[in-house]
Every structure is written in structure tokens, then in C-alpha cells.
Design goal:
The complex is a heterodimer.
Chain A: E1 5-7, E2 10-13, E3 19-24, E4 31-37, E5 43-50, E6 53-56, E7 65-68, E8 75-79, E9 88-95, E10 104-105, E11 109-113
Parallel strand pairs in A: 2-11
Antiparallel strand pairs in A: 1-3, 3-8, 4-5, 4-9, 5-6, 7-8, 9-10, 9-11
Chain B: E1 3-5, E2 10-14, E3 19-21, E4 24-26, E5 32-38, E6 45-49, E7 60-61, E8 72-74, E9 83-90, E10 97-99, E11 103-108
Parallel strand pairs in B: 2-11
Antiparallel strand pairs in B: 1-4, 3-8, 5-6, 5-9, 7-8, 9-10, 9-11
Classes of the chains: A mainly beta, B mainly beta.
């Protein structure tokens, strides 16, 4: 079991471009969570998804950010028209249910906006 | 508001010394508390959770509801314990975790 896979590991985008971050959950996991870690800060919850459904997006910025977890394929976190303040590490976690049991993190994607 | 506070950004100790990483939380209800660890160049991984009351790699943590604390302790630190440690809280409503800012533990030889 390869665990939670995130790609790319590093992503560089110019201001105004789009960033697409991918997360493949562990086998058998249907719950996905995205977190953002700004420099010198802890991880901040962004969004919680199950297959084809957004369950909790209370941590998502109101504009430019969106997430999906289609029936087939990885979960995608999409950031449109990136700005310097979007530079951060983005972590994905997956679990088999919502009880935090077996909550597993990916290695993260480090986004740098230049 | 739900909040987790780790007051120490960096904690530096010598090998063999006792370690205590502080964690305080703010939550009205019965939260579940966790400690996660991130070793250099590795992913975040669960160290322990309060409901299991287990000891992992010599670390223990006791939930003190009166002081709203969940401090992580180890009697004798080892160099391989050097890592970032994050305290986290779950409101048991949907799986999301609320993290503290993290404490970097540095164990010197």
C-alpha cells in the first residue's frame, strides 16, 4: 500500500497562473482532507471531501480556491490566479471514515508563487 | 472558538534529559486530542492519541480537562526524537483536525 500520494512535490507558478494539486488517498479510503501550512504556522484545515461530495469547506478561501474528489481519480485542489500569499505547503490526508481512525497524511505539495 | 496552542516554537534539550512539549486547547465539549510528529523530510505521522492511552517510542501524554492541556512527555530524550511535533484536536464531527503551531524538538548529543 503506497499510502497517500501527492503530486507534484514541488510546484512553481507565476502570479496569475493556475495551480492544480493532486491527492490519491490510501487504498480503501474514501475520505479526503486538505490542509495548508503557511510559513511559520501550523496546518490549517481547508476542505473535507468524500467521493463526489464536499462535506465541509469551512476553511476554504471564498475566492479562487476549489476542490473536487471525483468518482474516479485523485482529489484535486485547484487555485486560480495564484498570488504570492498562496505560497505554502499543501497537505492531503485520507481516512476510511470520519472518525480520525487511520488518518494518514501525504508528503505534501510545496507551492511557490513567483 | 476551537484552538490549540503550543507555546514553544523550539525546545532544545540534551540527550538523556526529560522532555515536555506543552499543548493547551480551547474547546467546549469532549474533544479528541492527538500528537503528530514530522521527522526531517518525512510525512506527518500519528504519534499517539489520548483515547488509546498508549506509550509510543517512550512518549506519553495525559489529557487534563481541568487545565485543558495535553502535554507530551518523555523521561529520557534521544537524538532520534529530534523532529517537529504538532498537537491536534478533533471535534469528532467530520474528521477535521485543528493543529497547533508546532514545536521543534532538538535533542543534542
Amino acid at each position: 500500500n503506497a499510502g497517500v500520494m501527492q503530486n507534484p512535490r514541488h510546484l512553481v507558478r507565476r502570479r496569475g497562473q493556475e495551480a492544480r494539486l493532486r491527492c490519491s488517498p490510501m487504498k480503501g479510503h474514501s475520505h479526503v482532507y486538505w490542509y495548508r501550512q503557511l510559513p511559520e504556522e501550523g496546518l490549517k484545515f481547508m476542505v473535507y471531501l468524500q467521493k463526489e461530495n464536499i462535506i465541509d469547506e469551512s476553511g476554504m478561501p471564498k475566492e479562487r480556491f476549489s476542490a473536487e474528489f471525483p468518482k474516479e481519480g485523485p482529489s484535486i485542489l485547484r487555485i486560480q490566479q495564484v498570488v504570492r500569499g498562496d505560497s505554502a505547503a499543501y497537505f492531503c490526508a485520507s481516512s476510511a471514515d470520519s472518525s480520525n481512525y487511520g488518518y494518514t497524511f501525504g508528503s505534501g505539495t510545496r507551492l511557490t508563487v513567483v | 472558538a476551537q484552538r490549540v496552542t503550543q507555546p514553544e516554537k523550539l525546545l532544545s534539550v540534551f540527550k538523556g534529559a526529560p522532555v515536555e512539549l506543552k499543548c493547551n486547547y480551547s474547546y467546549s465539549g469532549s474533544p479528541e486530542l492527538f500528537w503528530y510528529v514530522q521527522y526531517s523530510r518525512q510525512r506527518l505521522q500519528l504519534l499517539l492519541r489520548h483515547i488509546s492511552r498508549e506509550s509510543i517510542k517512550g512518549f506519553t501524554a495525559d489529557l487534563n480537562k481541568g487545565e485543558t492541556s495535553f502535554h507530551l512527555k518523555k523521561p529520557f530524550a534521544q537524538e532520534e526524537d529530534s523532529a517537529m511535533y504538532y498537537c491536534a484536536l478533533s471535534d469528532n464531527q467530520g474528521g477535521k483536525l485543528i493543529f497547533g503551531q508546532g514545536t521543534e524538538l532538538s535533542v543534542k548529543p
